[in-house]
Write a structure and sequence with these properties.
Number of strands: 4
Radius of gyration: 26 Å
Mean pLDDT: 78
Strand order of the largest sheet: 1-2
Shape: globular
Largest sheet: 2 strands, antiparallel
Strand content: under 5%
């Protein structure tokens, strides 16, 4: 007897029979390894604890999206953090390539100098009124160490200390000469990071150089989805990665996390409509899936997203460690507007205290914890490899991509500098200048804007997850 006939014999109507058949019918069997929904495929495995960490993804999502992200956005819209001085005309130091992206969305519009607040423009890399006044007083002194004899002994010593800091070897980035005629202020709010159309061989060359030449990886080990990778689905690469020390593994994961974050921004602010009357930017789900879908990326997508969370934890930890530097009474976010400067400093400290309150911080004490001589050597290699990556940003052909690439690598480099300077930060006096550990205005602006990009990426993941669930 057919199932429908038997149910009718029980006195059930046709609509009820249909509902029961749907409920009782066995679900379709999906191909092995292919989760049932687009949302599952993109976010499969991106749950629970992160490798090399005690933190879990869900804790980060809740903390970032509902506590930190709104406050951080408000901070980055302030005058102090929206203006970034950058030299986008530096030649590529690694290969002869003068080609630039001809797409109009690749262009960066610099600020007329009269639009930049006086306090920022007058001393563009010092971070306080006292430092700016000192810079003006020492204008006639030679920058590389010669001190005008007419200056007081105290001022001479301050100039020498600033010179030592500015030329120091603790930087993880190749820093622009902001006094160069080619360095210009850019309003980051008017030049947002988004899809520009810059892709293909030129963009691939940049990332390939970063991964293949700067991630401690031997040439014989091919990274997943790279040309010549073979058919082992990345097993050789991940066996190698699992076997290296935590520092080298972390270096790769930081680069991968930065790459993932940039791809999320490009997918979230994609050019959806381009007509003579208007341009419309918004989330492109197809683009997101091509970069992060578990099946389309042969399992790489979820790993990339986990590396994004790893990067988030590293930069969040750096912010919490830098709190003593920023909460000194003498530190100012100096723009020349005293009322706004005080308000923004209070907001900055609120964000830093919030960062410090995060319950599952990354434990950086496991870094460089072995033999002191070997640890020092590895730390220097770590620093030089990352510095090399910052130089590669001058080879990016799209100027808007170059702007955000330089800012985000400098921000991550500043975070690493903070994590590796914990002893110096602990010795900062509560009042008076901090000579042992310094951050320039460029580093401060890059640090918070770079973390703002990572925070935005985590928030955008929630948006993509909701879109895919409703598809």
């Amino acid at each position: 007897m057919a199932a429908g006939s038997g149910l009718r014999a029980l006195g059930l109507t046709a609509p009820l029979i249909l509902i029961l058949l749907i409920l009782l019918w066995p679900p379709p069997v999906l191909p092995q390894g292919l989760p049932g929904t687009a949302e599952q495929r993109c976010f499969c495995q991106v749950t629970g604890y992160l490798d090399d960490c005690t933190c879990d993804v869900e804790t980060i999502d809740a903390f970032n999206n509902y506590k930190l992200f709104p406050r951080l956005n408000e901070l980055l819209e302030s005058d102090y953090f929206r203006y970034y001085k950058v030299n986008l005309k530096k030649p590529c130091p690694f290969w002869n390539d003068s080609s630039h992206c001809g797409i109009r969305d690749c262009a960066v519009k610099p600020c007329p100098s009269n639009e930049v607040p006086d306090g920022i423009r007058s001393g563009s890399y010092k971070y306080s009124e006292e430092a700016n006044n000192l810079a003006e007083e020492c204008e006639e002194a030679e920058r590389l160490g010669a001190v005008d004899g007419s200056l007081s002994e105290e001022t001479q010593e301050a100039v020498l200390r600033w010179t030592r800091h500015d030329d120091s070897s603790d930087s993880f980035c190749e820093v622009d000469d902001i006094h160069s005629p080619d360095a210009e202020y850019v309003d980051l709010l008017l030049n947002p990071e988004r899809y520009t159309g810059y892709k293909g061989p030129d963009a691939w060359k940049i990332w390939n150089s970063i991964y293949e030449e700067n991630c401690f990886k031997p040439q014989t080990v091919k990274r997943p989805l790279a040309s010549g990778r073979g058919d082992d689905e990345g097993r050789t690469f991940y066996n190698w990665l699992k076997g290296v020390c935590i520092e080298k593994r972390a270096f790769y994961r930081l680069v991968s996390g930065l790459h993932a974050s940039i791809n999320i921004h490009l997918s979230a602010r994609y050019l959806l409509q381009d007509t003579w009357s208007e341009k419309k930017w918004g989330p492109n789900v197809t683009e997101f899936q091509q970069r992060f879908d578990e099946v389309l990326t042969r399992g790489e997508g979820p790993r990339r997203l986990k590396n994004l969370y790893f990067l988030y934890l590293i930069e969040l930890r750096a912010l919490s460690k830098a709190l003593p530097f920023f909460e000194r009474p003498g530190f100012q976010l100096y723009t020349g507007n005293k009322i706004q400067d005080a308000e923004i400093k209070n907001l900055l400290l609120e964000i830093l205290h919030l960062a410090k309150s995060f319950p599952l911080h990354f434990d950086e004490n496991s870094f460089f914890a072995g033999n002191q001589k070997e640890a020092a050597k590895l730390k220097e290699e770590f620093r030089l490899h990352f510095k090399n990556i910052s130089k590669i940003m001058d080879c990016v052909g799209c100027f808007k991509c170059r702007l955000w690439g330089k800012l985000q690598t400098q921000g991550l480099g500043t975070a690493l500098k903070i994590l590796f300077s914990e002893n110096l930060i602990e010795k900062i006096p509560e009042s008076g200048p901090s000579y042992g550990f310094q951050l320039t205005r460029q580093e401060i602006v890059a640090l918070f804007n770079a973390f703002g990009r990572i925070s935005t990426s985590v928030k955008e993941l929630e948006n993509f997850r909701n879109i895919l669930q409703n598809m």
